């Protein structure tokens, strides 16, 4: 089968298209004929090897933590799925496998794909959606009436955090470039502001806030300044580095460490199908262009969430 793989950690040059052996599902697994995967920033970090100690992964690696496709074969003991089912899933961070014509996935990580969008576009949901849900629902516990600042609101994860917060009844201030303003306003935010001037302080953007959710890579001193944007007793959640707590003001902090969860993914699918959640996809590229997508991401040229079409 056709696959993109790398046999050593390194720059984008280690990625190559090659013929790989079609995997066979074991007990509790399904074989998926892959329609699409998507690029996530963590893919770049894993390929570089900077997460090798934290996320041990055997080489060679077929990248792609998201998968959308059709169940092609059932392993022993799989009774809840049928051949021909349209599914999506997130691989565990130490597994991967979406950038290939076929992939083996644990059956208990699989969720029925949304019916209201294409199967390929559904590949944009798993990791980004689960990270957003973890940030907004599990960690921040956003509630009606709260004020929420989302830094990096226009990105794949931030866009979903914004929508979950608005749906919960929060008053959301979205921070990102003006090119995202129309879309973010369409999600129902109170205000869209440009990139944060951390030296200007929270009052410059209407703060402090009950909840701050950060998805922007900042230097440690920048992350430390985010604490001042949180009101007494509030929380800051970050997927882009640790933000210090402030015990004197009872300001809590939490970090996002995304994990696969079929039931949480099913919840997000239902929100898509009932119109409460929209996916923003910046680009769709064929499998053979995945090395270029990695290169664009490394050079800061990737437009946003990019779906990789496999079949």
TrEMBL record:
GO molecular function: oxidoreductase activity
Domain Enoyl reductase (ER): 10-308
Name of the protein in its database record: NADPH:quinone reductase
Upper taxonomic lineage: Bacteria, Bacillati, Actinomycetota, Actinomycetes, Micromonosporales
Origin: domain of life: Bacteria
């Amino acid at each position: 089968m056709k696959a993109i793989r790398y046999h050593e950690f390194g720059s984008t040059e280690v990625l190559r298209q090659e013929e790989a052996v079609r995997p066979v599902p074991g007990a509790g697994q399904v074989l998926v004929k892959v329609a699409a995967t998507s690029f996530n920033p963590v893919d770049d970090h894993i390929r570089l090897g900077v997460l090798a100690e934290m996320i041990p992964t055997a080489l060679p690696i077929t990248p792609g933590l998201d998968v959308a496709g059709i169940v092609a074969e059932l392993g022993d003991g799989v009774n809840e799925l049928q051949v021909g089912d349209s599914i999506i899933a997130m691989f565990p961070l130490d597994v991967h496998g979406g950038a290939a014509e076929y992939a083996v996935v644990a059956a208990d990580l699989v969720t029925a794909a949304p019916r209201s969008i294409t199967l390929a576009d559904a590949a944009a949901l798993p990791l980004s959606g689960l990270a957003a849900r973890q940030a907004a629902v599990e960690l921040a516990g956003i509630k009606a009436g709260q004020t929420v600042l989302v830094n990096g609101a226009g990105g794949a994860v931030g866009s979903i955090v914004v929508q979950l917060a608005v749906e919960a009844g929060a008053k959301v201030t979205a921070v990102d470039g003006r090119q995202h303003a129309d879309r973010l306003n369409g999600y129902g935010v109170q205000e869209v502001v440009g990139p944060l001037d951390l030296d200007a302080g929270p009052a410059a953007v209407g703060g402090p806030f009950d909840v701050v959710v950060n998805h922007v890579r900042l230097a440690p001193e920048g992350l430390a300044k985010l604490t001042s944007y949180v009101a007494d007793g509030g929380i800051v959640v970050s997927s882009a580095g640790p933000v210090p707590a402030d015990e004197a003001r009872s300001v809590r902090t939490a970090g996002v460490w995304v994990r696969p969860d079929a039931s949480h993914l099913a919840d997000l699918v239902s929100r898509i199908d009932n119109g409460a959640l929209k996916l923003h996809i910046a680009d769709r590229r064929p499998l053979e262009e995945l090395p270029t997508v990695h290169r664009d991401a490394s050079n800061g040229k990737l437009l946003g969430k990019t779906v990789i079409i496999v079949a």
